[in-house]
Target: Putative glycosyl hydrolase-like family 15 (GHL15) protein
Amino acid sequence: MPKESLNRRPRRVLGLVCAAALLLSSAACTAGAAAGRPTPPGDPLGPVPKPLAPCGWWYGIGEPPTPRDMAFAAEHYSLVVLNATETAALHRLKQLNPKIKVLVYKDFSSARNYPGAVEGEADAPLLPTGIGYFKAHRENPHWFAVDTKDNRIEWVVYPKHWQMTVWDPTYQKAWSEAVTAEVVAQGWDGVFADNDFSSLRYYSSAVLKGTADAAESDRVIREGMDTFLTTAGDALHKAGKMLIPNVSESHLTAGRWTAHSRYDGAMEENFGLRDTGTGELLTFKGNEWKELRSQAALGETWLLLITHTKGAREERVGYATAALLASPHTCWSGATTRDYRDPDWSKYQDAELGEATETANRLPSGVWDRRFTGGYVAVNPTGKSARVTPPPGLVNVDGGAAAPTTIELASGDAVILVNPAGPTPTATTPATTTTTTTTTTQPGTTTTTTTTDPTTTTTEPTTTTTTATTEPTTTTTSSPSPTP
Model:
């Protein structure tokens, strides 16, 4: 989504979780991969890296990061995205943690002329885009997309963002050359490219000149982005730099996620969405889930995942689903604001799941689960509740109660269980039915410092019980998240 970097209303940065839970014979989740396409560190004939479960990244495109932000990021994150103007922060992060990957935010699809992107009648020296508004206006006005009445197309929800001809090879080449030169000159590890989208409808109802309708306009944009990605990715890789696009609506087109993550990975900005009508999780629909799992299994490229968390259910589902995809470069964030104005840190990042002991399993009920040395996760992406039988002796991260023998998992929900903290108490408790409850986090609650592990109880029930992890239902849509 277009993040209004260099905006008159800067936003706070977002902290994400990158504790990549590894799959199969993949490399450890670290930001220390070589520049360009991430490769497994160390001797390829050496011991198989342990599959440590879930890692983190920081989408730091809000206001300039503070020294405290940078110290926290250097210690906790494997990858950080910053605005082009934050070169001082880039170098500071590299000083604090030489292994951290720091990418620059660039938009594929727009030129912008709001204050900050332009200075008077000139483009700013460091842009949130690849091509400056005035450069295009004066030298290549045909790079501005126009509608059937020859009017330039301004994105309705993002004023002063202008749709460009992403299908034009000359625009693609100019963007790629300009961005690559800047990345090399400033020392970025690569590019986070926003708005690799397949439809204009979220930004404008305009129909492109030369097309019959909105569907044909979208096809032109979608096919244009396919070739644009190749032009940009090849240019950056020749310079030893990374490319990670923000791919939208990949669940609608089979193979799109795989194709667009082929350089260094991709971002899913609407991860773990719940279908409004059925209660099912959209991430598991279509071909996207298969493609995400395939990428995670290879363990060579980054999966950057964001779940917009209106409450505890979204946070729990997002993290648990990311754990199902745990790999050397799987990173998750639970964003509590849709515009990312605040840094976020989830209690699940401190859950200490440990090492994955198996790949994710699909149970006959449709539930997916996975075991770790330090715990267990299960996700129910279906429209009906289902029962799961977790390993014995675990406690629920939500509330700390001992997990019962059988858990009733609500539609579109998840459970995260971990080993008890400390030695098991010797005291016994009466054999009673135990219900594990889930505490809902208030929307908008944020944490800017490291959190402590939740206090847990370790006394197990002596009878089989059933636990419901239901909450008030919240529904979401798959449309791009708006920014102010």
In short: The chain is about 20% helix and 20% strand. The longest strand covers residues 101-107.
